[in-house]
Amino acid sequence: MGRGPSTFKQADYIRAVKAAKAAGLELYRSEIHRDGRIVLYHELKEIPAERQETYEEWAARTGATIF
Question: Is residue 67's pLDDT more than 70?
């Protein structure tokens, strides 16, 4: 009996991990659920003041928009 279609792609997982690392998070565990959810666990730590920015600053820097 086969496994059936995959609910996530490896690229999805890699994208999530890279985004977490870019945000300065140190991952220590990850889970991939059958429904396609990717859960990343990290240690909660204080963000240095020089790395803190408002949403507006982040949106301007990244070119992000709200749908």
Answer: no
| E strand or H helix at 56 | helix 55-62
Helix (H) or strand (E) holding 19: helix 10-22
The answer to whether the predicted template modeling score (pTM) of the entire model surpasses 0.70 is: no
Alpha-carbon gap, residue 30 to 43, rounded angstroms: 12
- Is residue 48 assigned to a domain? yes
> Could you tell me if residue 4 is inside a domain?
no
What span, in angstroms and rounded, lies between the C-alpha atoms of 46 and 50? Answer: 11
Half-sphere exposure of 21 (CA within 13 A, CB side): 9
Domain containing 57 equals 10-62
Quick check: is 5 in a domain?
A: no
The answer as to whether 17 is a domain residue is: yes
